[in-house]
Amino acid sequence: MLCACLLTFFLFGIGNGYIHAAHPKVFKENQVKGVFLYNLIKFVTWPDSEHKVDPFIIGVLGGDSFDYLLRKVVEGEYIGHRKIMVEHYDSSDQVVWSRVDMLFISRGAAPGVDSLSRLAANNNVLTVGEEVGFCRRGGMINLVTRGSRILIEVNIGQIRKSGFRVSAQVLKLARIVKTVSEEN
Predict the structure, then answer these.
(1) pLDDT tens, 17-41?
(2) To 10 degrees, what angle do helices 29-40 and 2-12 make?
(3) Which of 43, 45, 96, 105 is 20 to 30 Å apart from 154, CA to CA?
(4) pLDDT of residue 151
(5) Considering the entire predicted model, what is its pTM?
(6) Cβ–Cβ under 8 Å, residues 108 and 62
(7) Is 182 helix (H, G, I), strand (E, B) or coil?
(8) CATH code of the domain in which 19 resides
C-alpha cells in the first residue's frame, strides 16, 4: 500500500525540475527519494546490462534509515525478470561493483565521489547522490533538497561517457550539470 501511494505521488507530483510534496507532513524527504530511485530504473538504459545477473541491486552507501525505507519501497518489485533488492554498505570498500546496478551515495558518504565515479563507470553502475556538488564532482544524478522540494540534477556528460541512456522525460525535469573538469 505504501508503495502504491508513493508511486502515485511520484507520478503526479513532479514539475519544473522539482519533486513536490503534495502533503509535506505525509511524505518525507527519504520516501520521495526512495520512490524516485525505484522509478528511475524504468527511465535509464544500462550499458551492456546482459552481463548482470539476478537480482537488480540498488546499493546504498551510508544512510541506514534510507536503506530501510528503500527496502520497503522495492519489496516484491521486479524490473523485467530481475528482482529488485537493496544492499547497504558502510564504506566504499564493501561495494561489490560487479553486483551493483545503481549506487545511492548518502550525505556524508560522498567525499570520495571522484574515485567512486571512476569505479562506477568502469562497472556500469549508475551513481545517485544527495549532496550539493555531487554531479560537479563526477556523480551522475543528484537529488538536492531545497526547502520542501527536491531538485533533480543530471550530469549528462558523465552519464553518456559511462554508456548510460536517460529518458528525455527525466532530462526535461532535471537541471543539467557539468563536472568541474568540463567547465574549465
Answers:
(1) 444 444 443 348 888 899 999 999 9
(2) 80
(3) 96
(4) 92
(5) 0.82
(6) yes
(7) helix
(8) 3.40.50
> Which grid coordinates belong to 115?
574515485
Q: Are 106 and 61 in contact (CB under 8 A)?
A: yes
Q: Is the sign of the CA dihedral 5, 9, 49, 144 positive or negative?
A: negative
Cell readout for 175 is 537541471
**CA 122, CA 105: separation in Å to the nearest integer?**
17
Strands 18-19 and 78-79: unpaired
> Which residue has cell 546504498?
60
Segment 71-86, tens digit of pLDDT: 999 999 998 889 999 9
Q: Which residues of the chain have pLDDT under 70?
A: 1-27, 49-53, 110-111, 182-184
Q: At 3, which helix (H) or strand (E)? A: helix 2-12
Alpha-carbon separation of residue 5 from 10, 16, 71, 127, 165 (angstroms)? 9, 22, 15, 26, 28
Structural domain span for residue 53: 2-183
What total of structural domains would you count in the chain? 1
Q: What is the pLDDT of residue 9?
A: 44
